[in-house]
Each structure stands twice: as structure tokens, then as C-alpha cells.
Amino acid sequence: MTIPSLHIVRLYIARDGFRWHRKAANGRIVSESGEAYTTKGAALEGLSMSNRDTDNYTFIDDTEEQS
Questions:
Q1: Helix (H, G, I), strand (E, B) or coil at 11
Q2: Could you name the domain of life of the organism this protein comes from (predicted)?
């Protein structure tokens, strides 16, 4: 079994707004938004401020299919 070397950052819609989390290659959540954002733009801004190493993760936008 091959474990991906990149982390995965996922943006999603929760009951209370937009949230994100970052999972390590082993599947464990290593960071999260900690709060819900009222707009997708605000969530993306918080995500980018907390995850500046864009070469080290894959971004998944799960809000597209839920909107």
C-alpha cells in the first residue's frame, strides 16, 4: 500500500458555515479552522493564512457539489 506524501486540505460546508481541515498522509487531522466562516471567501482566506505551504498539500473543495 502506498501512502501519499502530501497532506490534504479540505474545504467543506458544515451546519454552522464553511470550515476546513488538514489531514496528514496517515489520515489524522493535524489542523482545522476552529471556527465556522459565514462566507466561502472568508474561509478560503483563513485557510490560506494557516496553510501557506501550498506545495505540500492537495486542496479539495467539497463546497462545489453542496452549493
A1: strand
A2: Bacteria
Alpha-carbon span 6 to 17, nearest angstrom? 26
54 lies in some domain:
yes
Q: What total of structural domains would you count in the chain?
A: 1
Place of cell 476546513: 20
Task: Please check the confidence at residue 42 and state whether its pLDDT lies above 90.
Answer: yes
Q: Residue 28 is part of a domain; what is its CATH number? A: 3.30.420.300
Residue with cell 476552529: 34
Beta-carbon neighbour count of residue 64 at 10 Å? 9
* Three-state DSSP class for residue 38: coil
Supply the pTM of this predicted model: 0.83
